[in-house]
């Protein structure tokens, strides 16, 4: 692996000082911002995440804020998920599609009020798409990236840690709901959500200057809980089937190919830009779809498509892979053609280190 | 510095195998793609760039292709530069602005034909803005990212190296013009352009599979010219005043603030989305502008805004900085308020390593 060269373009976050002090060893870049990838080792971070509690700098989940009389209309234009029943205080995972039904992002929409939304984005400049659509349709809406930076608290001891800093009321936040909670006189959105299957919260930290005081308070309050700086963990997220935009899907994929059909209500999502393009695939289903793939390990790091083969025939590709300590196998996410996507189908995956036996699974590991 | 974690999301390029074989030591991420930053050392790469010839993997300069009857209309909507006089075969540096006149990108537009353009982009997902505008205005135009990856040949011996591979006709290409040149039976756009002041070309390599054969041919043909793998060089580009989108400017800046007023014809750029917003600043001028800043060295790496101070008063900020061997000083790019932007103004810059004396220059170093 090579080093990452610092520059202003790879934006630091309100928590970067804390991340560095905790001895971050690796980064990726996400929304033009630094995202830590490893502190001790990916395996050690994984073990700790499953047993204790971690604080994650996920400021790179930037917000696209929609504000104004046309905010709700615009939000529905962006996604085939029917948002009519969504209430302020709720978070919805929303596939965002272009006019062809291709995925532009897979963010979490946060409904702050009828006329105010945050879109907590994955790795693409969704702001540009949203601004372009709003301008083209002359909508009455303000669109901007506010100074709001998510900090995640993840792991089985998350509730205990959060209660110490924000009070016991945080325990009552239901999954994908949020409330406003005070810290040092400022109010922050706190949601029960996060990019792991170990439970936890995301604090939408309001204001760069509030970042390090909160980081430090969480570290201090959780000392006896063995709190550590952490980050989204490659192994755990694959085991849990958490997709990564840009890795597991991109603009060439429909939500249905990504297994996100349950988040689409294409028939009733009136106004959605990609609605017409998606109606047929919403009814008939896709011809390829994301699957959990078990691979005979050990597998190398996956930094490119690995072809999934049935003999000489290419039937799909692996896009994320890791070696799972808990399941004692290579765990992977791949896109597989309909002809070969049934659970139990035996395939071969061609990795840069050579071919490996692979098997399509019924479900992810958790 | 920390390591960069590989993943499919940080896309490899058609030339990555060559880059790795040449011993790349550092990367940045640009348009979700790996961009090498250093091979030997930034200083050694700099010296070699100025004396010999380098081959650069700049595949991360992705193309946004516009094709169809409304392509030219759409292209003019994107920029305040008047494109009416532009001919096929020309390249134009075009500030791209949003409806407020804020910079979204500073690409090179390549006019392939009246109804076919490439926009060779800096680091933002401009495709999403262009698609959004085209959809909102119901334009008859296809917009996509083709499988075209620029490979730059830069340095004083560029003409000699290119002539050996593409024939002597490449010597006749004028600055910011291009022609079609064959390599192994396939035709590629070759332009006299590039992100250095040392002269050279950019080959818009058509097709991933054509990448490594061309890379290898250039390396082979240039052996006695001391050809090496290289990359945009931080020191050289600051000396030459080559701006970097995301470092030196972003969506909060107008082209005029970036000193790009000479590329704007706001009055006659009919149809440009940001025209109304820019008319006044185009006439009156901006209240802050990019300047070359000389800093008493040595300076640390610049990965955040460095405040430019006049006593207690903040009058600007530095966004890129390096230590120049040739000029024996810290060289920097900064944005300075009108009250303090005159050449010779003495300022202080607050770096993370402490304050440094700084001086506004009349022009960049080259």
Automatic annotation (TrEMBL), chains A, B:
Domain Aminomethyltransferase C-terminal intervals: 288-361
Domain GCVT N-terminal positions: 20-266
Stored InterPro entries: GcvT/YgfZ/DmdA (IPR028896), GcvT_C (IPR013977), GCVT_N (IPR006222)
NCBIfam families, alphabetized: PRK12486.1
Official protein name in the record: Dimethylsulfoniopropionate demethylase
Protein species of origin: Thalassococcus arenae
Lineage of producing organism: Bacteria, Pseudomonadati, Pseudomonadota, Alphaproteobacteria, Rhodobacterales
